[in-house]
Design goal:
The complex is a heterodimer of chains A (391) and B (282). Chain A is α+β, with helices and mostly antiparallel strands and 391 residues long. Chain A is built from 13 helices and 10 strands. The interface between A and B is large, with 34 and 37 residues.
C-alpha cells in the first residue's frame, strides 16, 4: 500500500515536471512544426493598437473567403497588442534570426517606423526575402517606398501625424510652426502633446520640433553623431513648455495618444498632434465630436508607411507573396480606409472614399518619413529628464 | 527500503516540483537581478553607479520621495477608514450595516482598468463633477488628474475594501463574550475599545497595513493613467528604465530598491506574526 502511494507521488511529480517542460518548449515547437504540416497556411505577425488587430481580422477574413486566393492559402493572424509589456515582435524576430532558426512560422511580418529600422539594424535587411516584383503585380504603379530596406519590404498603407483641433474654438488653424507657436502663446494651456515613448503622436511632435533645427538627412539616420545637434530643438521644446496644458497647478503631458485626444474631445484643450487614422476613424465611429478636424503643418509632422516583409527563416514564401499582393488590391485598400482611415497607397479614384474625404487630402508623396532607430531611446530619455521634469 | 525512508521520499517527491518551480521562477531571477544591479551596463564590472543614479539624480530622488508620500498617505487613510468601517460592520446589527456588509467588496470585482477610467471621467477637470457644477453656474476644477491626490483617491478605492475585509475577519474572531465580560465589570464603550477590541485586533490592522503598503509601492496602472510626468511613482520609473531606455542594469537596481522598501513592511509583518506565537506559548 505504502509502495503504491510512493510510486503515485513520484509519478505525480514527474508528470508535473514534464507538464512544465512541455509548457516551456511548446512555444518554440509551434514556431517550427505548425506551418510545415500544412503548406497552404500563412502565419502573419503584427503588433500595434487594437484597431490594427481589428482591421487585420477583417482583411484576413476577406482574403480567406473572397479573394482570388481563397481556398489556396489560409492566413492566420498572430497579434501582439503594443504596450502590454511582453516581448516585442522585433525582439522575437531578432532572436529567431540570431538563433539560426529556419522553417519557422514567421511567414510574414507587419513592420513600420522604428520597429522596422530596429529590426534591420539588429539582423540586417538580408534577414528578409528580397522582394520579386513579378510576384506582386498589384504593386505596379505604387510610388510609396520604405525609407529603410526598400527592396525588402512592401509598404501597404500610410499613416501620418497631423494637428487635430476643435474647429468650434479654432477658426483658423495654424499652417506653419511659427503660426502654431504664436497660437500657443495667445492661448496658453490649450495645447498638449503626449509624452514621447507613450505614443507616436507625441514622438512625432517632439522629434519634428527638434529635427526642424537639423539637416534634412538626419531625419532618416540612426547615426549617434546627430545627438550632438539636438540642443537647439530641446531648448525650443523647453520654451514651449510654459504654454502647455495645465492640471492640478502644473504643466502636464498625458500618456498615450488617446490621452491627448480625450482632452481634446472633452474640451480641456483645443489642439494636439495625433494620428490622422486615429482621429478620423474615431470621428467616423462617433466617439469624437464632429467639430474635431485635422490639418497639416509645414514642415509636416512625420508620417510613415506600414510594410509587410517576408523573413528568410519563414516557411511559406509563396503564400506570403499572395497576401502582400492581396493587400494592394482595391478591396483590401478600401477595407483599410473604411476600418482605420488608413491612407491608401493605390489611386484613390479606384476606391470608394465616402466619409473619408479628409484622407484624400493627405498626400503620401509629401510624407515626411522619420526613422532614427535606436536613437529614439536616447531621445525619450533626454525628453523625460529635461522637459518632463520642468514641472 | 525502510518504511520511514519511503515516507520521506514520498514527501520529498511531492514537495520537489513546487520547490523547483519556485527556485526557477522566483529565486533565480531575484539572484540574477541583484547581480545585474551591481554590474556596469557595458563592461559588466562591479559598480555602485546603478544605485547611485537613483539617489543622486534629482528627478529620480523626487520619484522615490513622491512614491513614499503617496504610499504612506494611502496606507494611513485606507487603514483608518477601513478600521472604522469594520468596527461598524462588526458591532452594528442594522439592515443598513448588513447591506453595506454585502456591498463593500464590490470594488474588488471591478477590473482595475475600468475603475481607473470611471474615476477619471468623474474627477477630471471636464468630468462629471465639473459638469454638475456648471449646471449651477460653478466651474469646479478639481485638479486631481495628473496629481498625487488623484492617485491616492484611486488607491483608496482599491485598498479600503481590501483592508476592511482583513480587519473584519479579525474583528469577527473576537467573541461577544469578551465584550460582554468587559461591560459586566463596568467598562464603558471607550474603555472596552481601548483595552479589549483594539489590542485583540491590532495585529490584523498592522497586517492589513503592510499589505496595502506593499501593493502600492509597485503600483502601475493607476499612476500610469492618472499620474503626471514628474515626479512619477517608482512603478512608472521602472517601466521607463526597462521599456523606454532599455537600461537593464539600472532597472535591476531600481527593482532591488523597491524590494528593500517592501521588505521593511514584510519585516513588520513577520515580526507581528512571531510576536503572536510568543504570546500563545505563555
Amino acid at each position: 500500500m505504502k509502495m503504491k502511494r510512493f510510486v503515485a507521488a513520484l509519478l505525480a511529480g514527474a508528470m508535473m515536471m514534464t507538464g512544465l517542460a512541455g509548457c516551456g518548449s511548446s512555444g518554440s515547437s509551434d514556431n517550427g512544426s505548425a506551418a510545415s504540416t500544412s503548406k497552404n497556411k500563412v502565419s502573419l505577425w503584427a503588433t500595434g493598437s487594437d484597431n490594427v488587430r481589428e482591421v487585420y481580422e477583417a482583411l484576413i477574413e476577406d482574403f480567406n473567403k473572397n479573394s482570388e486566393y481563397a481556398g489556396k492559402y489560409e492566413v492566420e493572424l498572430n497579434f501582439m497588442l503594443n504596450g502590454t509589456g511582453t516581448q516585442t515582435l522585433t525582439d522575437m524576430l531578432a532572436a529567431a534570426s540570431k538563433a539560426g532558426q529556419t522553417d519557422t512560422d514567421y511567414d510574414l511580418v507587419d513592420l513600420g517606423g522604428d520597429d522596422l529600422s530596429k529590426v534591420v539594424s539588429q539582423i540586417g535587411e538580408e534577414a528578409f526575402v528580397k522582394l520579386d516584383d513579378s510576384k506582386i503585380p498589384n504593386a505596379e504603379g505604387i510610388e510609396a517606398e520604405s525609407s529603410v530596406a526598400a527592396d525588402y519590404v512592401q509598404p501597404y498603407r500610410g499613416t501620418t501625424v497631423v494637428l487635430a483641433y476643435d474647429s468650434e474654438k479654432v477658426a483658423n488653424p495654424p499652417k506653419t510652426w511659427d503660426e502654431l507657436v504664436d497660437w500657443m502663446k495667445a492661448n496658453p494651456g490649450r495645447f498638449a502633446y503626449n509624452t514621447p515613448g507613450t505614443g507616436g503622436a507625441g514622438d512625432s511632435f517632439a522629434r519634428t520640433s527638434v529635427y526642424n533645427f537639423m539637416d534634412e538627412e538626419a531625419i532618416t539616420s540612426d547615426d549617434a553623431k546627430w545627438e550632438e545637434n539636438w540642443d537647439d530643438g530641446f531648448k525650443y521644446l523647453a520654451d514651449l513648455h510654459q504654454y502647455m496644458y495645465t492640471s492640478g497647478g502644473s504643466i502636464v503631458y498625458p500618456n498615450k495618444n488617446q490621452g491627448t485626444l480625450d482632452l481634446l474631445n472633452q474640451g480641456e484643450i483645443d489642439m494636439c498632434p495625433n494620428w490622422a487614422d486615429m482621429v478620423l476613424s474615431q470621428r467616423a465611429e462617433g466617439t469624437l465630436k464632429d467639430t474635431i478636424k485635422i490639418t497639416q503643418l509645414d514642415p509636416a509632422l512625420t508620417g510613415s508607411f506600414q510594410s509587410l516583409a517576408i523573413p528568410t527563416f519563414g516557411s511559406n514564401e509563396e503564400g506570403a507573396y499572395a497576401f502582400i499582393n492581396y493587400m494592394l488590391s482595391e478591396s483590401a485598400q478600401e477595407i483599410l480606409v473604411k476600418q482605420m482611415a488608413a491612407i491608401p497607397l493605390i489611386d484613390t479614384s479606384k476606391i470608394d472614399m465616402t466619409g473619408f474625404e479628409d484622407v484624400e487630402n493627405l498626400d503620401v508623396s509629401s510624407f515626411r518619413i522619420m526613422s532614427i532607430g535606436d536613437l529614439s531611446t536616447d531621445f525619450n530619455e533626454r525628453w523625460d529628464n529635461e522637459i518632463g521634469t520642468l514641472g | 527500503m525502510s518504511k520511514r525512508l519511503k515516507q520521506n521520499l514520498a514527501a520529498y517527491g511531492m514537495v520537489i516540483p513546487a520547490f523547483l518551480v519556485v527556485m526557477l521562477t522566483v529565486t533565480y531571477p531575484i539572484i540574477s537581478a541583484v547581480i545585474q544591479s551591481f554590474q556596469d551596463e557595458k563592461t559588466g564590472a562591479f559598480t555602485l553607479d546603478n544605485y547611485a543614479y537613483f539617489f543622486t539624480e534629482p528627478a529620480q530622488l523626487k520619484n522615490l520621495l513622491f512614491t513614499l508620500f503617496v504610499v504612506f498617505v494611502t496606507v494611513a487613510i485606507a487603514i483608518v477608514v477601513a478600521y472604522l468601517l469594520a468596527l461598524y460592520l462588526r458591532f452594528t446589527k442594522s439592515k443598513i450595516a448588513k447591506t453595506i456588509g454585502t456591498l463593500y467588496l464590490v470594488p474588488r470585482f471591478v477590473p482595475a482598468m475600468c475603475a481607473v477610467y470611471a474615476m477619471i471621467t468623474i474627477i477630471r477637470d471636464s468630468g462629471l463633477i465639473n459638469r454638475i457644477g456648471l449646471l449651477f453656474g460653478m466651474d469646479i476644477k478639481l485638479g486631481m488628474m495628473y496629481h498625487a491626490s488623484g492617485i491616492i483617491t484611486m488607491n483608496l478605492w482599491f485598498n479600503i475594501p481590501f483592508a476592511a475585509m482583513m480587519i473584519t475577519a479579525g474583528l469577527g474572531a473576537i467573541p461577544d463574550s469578551i465584550i460582554e465580560g468587559a461591560r459586566d465589570v463596568g467598562a464603558g464603550k471607550f474603555k472596552t475599545f481601548t483595552s479589549m477590541i483594539l489590542p485583540l485586533s491590532i495585529k490584523d490592522v498592522i497586517i492589513a497595513a503592510t499589505f496595502v503598503f506593499m501593493t502600492n509601492v509597485g503600483s502601475f496602472t493607476t499612476p500610469y493613467l492618472m499620474g503626471g510626468n514628474s515626479p512619477k511613482m517608482l512603478g512608472i520609473a521602472l517601466f521607463d528604465q526597462f521599456n523606454k531606455y532599455l537600461a537593464y542594469n539600472r532597472s535591476a537596481a531600481l527593482s532591488v530598491i523597491m524590494f528593500l522598501i517592501c521588505s521593511v513592511s514584510a519585516g513588520v509583518y513577520i515580526y507581528t506574526n512571531l510576536k503572536e506565537q510568543d504570546w500563545e506559548k505563555q
